[in-house]
Amino acid sequence: MPDLNPLRAYAAVTAAYWAFMLSDGALRMLVLLHFNSLGFTPVQLAWLFLLYELAGIVTNLAAGWLAARFGLAATLYGGLALQVGALVALAQLDPSWGIAASVAFVMAVQGVSGVAKDLAKMSSKSAVKLLAPKESGGLFRWVALLTGSKNAVKGLGFFLGAALLALAGFRAAVWSMAGVLALILLAVVLFLPAGLPGRMKSDEAWGGWRSQDARVNRLSLARLFLFGARDVWFVVGIPVYFQAVLSDGSAEGRREAFFLIGSFLALWIIAYGAAQGMAPRLLGAKGQPEAETVRNAIVWAGRLVPIPFVLAGAAWMAPAPADWLTATLVAGLLLFGFVFAVNSSVHSYLILAFGSAERITRDVGFYYMANAAGRLVGTLLSGLSYQFGGLPLCLATAGAMALASWLAARRLAGT
């Protein structure tokens, strides 16, 4: 990278990723709240996001190879362009369509958005591995800054999506997001410095996408269950529950519920991002040996397990929606977010520490394939568990996924 300024390249990659995540968070809230207000069941709402997550699995398997062949800048541009296209397509949704047609159309558009997200995500994270300073915990700090700030921006997107839906309506909100993101894509193309690394030799074969490092595979399994534990309650269960208890059914009540739900989820994501950014200092990452970071991954995975089980017990004991239960859920889920954030930050560091520079795009792609698989399973279980067992079963399922993540993380100690 003789002609590349690492700080300028890092700033450009981070800015592009921020813009993408702002639109991604807003789109998720728009789709969820709009279709829930139309009377979709929890399972139908989960279906809207399944192809999004499935596309992430496939994309991450291919994205590492694509970046290795064409460079990280190309996959970053591709992710942003696909997201613009997905937003434009979603604006064509016709309210007169039946439920089956609407679900199929939105699933397809969400699938394109899922491809876009994981192209952008893999490109950004891989670039950090190649740009970050190698000394004094520089990699952990740069990763934590990217992921922490990204989640703060995505949290703002959750609020933005809910606010746009309440104030402007579904179609106007989608069109405005598409226009802004198109302008940002143009700016990134113009200002991203030349020479962003990531391309391999042209004779690299497709067949090497799966990691040959047992540490990467075991960490990926822990990641799968970790994100499943979050999305079991985050995607459908809690938003639907809060909309049921916060809205009186009137148009004004729905708008108020949109703002409150969007505000809570935005607060959760922003606090989660801030905790990720603090993780290196919290864990004393500067100069910390890799084995100590692995130990932290196991310890913090165990600390997550009891939280959703306690919340499930509180929801089960509540005879009906109650103020004390709502307050307990808010406090408990914020605590879950803090512990989850530390886990996620440690994982994000370890995958880059474990991965070799020669094949980093493919190791990261495989790892985020597992991440997407966890979100897919969590999304499906979110709709199913809430529809058939309500909030208690939804939260208990999250606890079971957190337990599985801890058991998988324990295997890292044997590598």
Question: Can you give a write-up of this model?
Answer:
- With 415 residues, this protein is mainly alpha-helical.
- It has a single domain, classed as Growth Hormone, Chain: A (Up-down Bundle), CATH 1.20.1250.
- It contains twelve helices and no strands.
- Helix 1 (6-37) packs antiparallel against helix 4 and helix 1 runs parallel beside helix 5.
- It is globular.
- Residues 201-208 have low confidence and may be disordered.
- One of its GO terms (molecular function) is transmembrane transporter activity.
- The chain crosses the membrane at residues 70-91, 97-116, 156-174, 180-200, 221-242, 257-275, 296-318, 324-352, 364-384, 390-409.
- This is Organoarsenical effux MFS transporter ArsJ.
- It comes from Pseudotabrizicola algicola.
β-strand amount: under 5%
Q: State the CATH topology.
A: Growth Hormone, Chain: A
CATH class: Mainly Alpha
Largest sheet at a glance? none
Which regions are unreliable across 5 or more consecutive residues at pLDDT < 50? 201-208
Give the fraction of residues assigned to helices.
Answer: over 70%
Question: What's the end-to-end separation, in Å?
Answer: 33 Å
- Rounded to the nearest angstrom, the radius of gyration is 20 Å
Number of helices: 12
Q: Give the full name of the CATH homologous superfamily.
A: MFS general substrate transporter like domains
Number of domains: 1
Q: Sketch the topology as an H/E string, one letter per element.
A: HHHHHHHHHHHH
Which structural class fits the helix and strand makeup? mainly alpha
Number of strands: 0
Keywords: Membrane, Transmembrane, Transmembrane helix
Transmembrane segments: 70-91, 97-116, 156-174, 180-200, 221-242, 257-275, 296-318, 324-352, 364-384, 390-409
GO molecular function: transmembrane transporter activity
Pfam family, one: MFS_1
